TrEMBL record:
The keyword Transmembrane helix applies. The chain crosses the membrane at residues 6-22, 29-48, 83-112. Keywords: Membrane, Transmembrane, Transmembrane helix. Pfam families: SpoVAC_SpoVAEB (PF03862). This is Stage V sporulation protein AE. Coiled coil: none annotated.
Length: 118
């Protein structure tokens, strides 16, 4: 059942975003930034953690989950380091995802053979 919950929650998030892309004049970049900000806000008010507990990767993989991990990292760092945690917590909280994106981006850049569209 965990896989089903992850699938439908992640799919619903992606479907809502696709509707915004198709039906509004918002650019995809603004929608993506909005998702990160919404994830931070939902974690700050305590709404996103129960969704993560219910849906697992379906809630943490989309960009809402990136905002969630930033907010969670900041909250942990502030509890441990005080005001300095505001500046360091987001980076340490999302370091695994950021490192994976850099490593896999470089790896695929080396393996891919880009072609001109014209």
């Amino acid at each position: 059942m965990e896989y089903v919950n992850a699938f439908w929650v992640g799919g619903a998030i992606c479907a809502v975003c696709q509707v915004f892309i198709d039906k509004t004049k918002l650019t995809p970049a603004r929608i993506l930034v909005s998702l990160v900000v919404i994830g931070v806000f939902l974690q700050a008010i305590g709404v996103y953690q129960p969704l993560v507990d219910y849906a697992g990767a379906g809630a943490t993989v989309p960009l809402l989950g990136f905002g969630y991990s930033l907010a969670k990292g900041v909250a942990k760092a502030v509890a441990e380091s005080g005001l300095l945690g505001v500046f360091t917590g987001g980076v340490t909280g999302a370091a695994g995802g950021i490192a994976a994106a850099i490593v896999f981006g470089c790896l695929f850049a080396l393996l891919a053979k880009p072609k001109s569209k014209s």
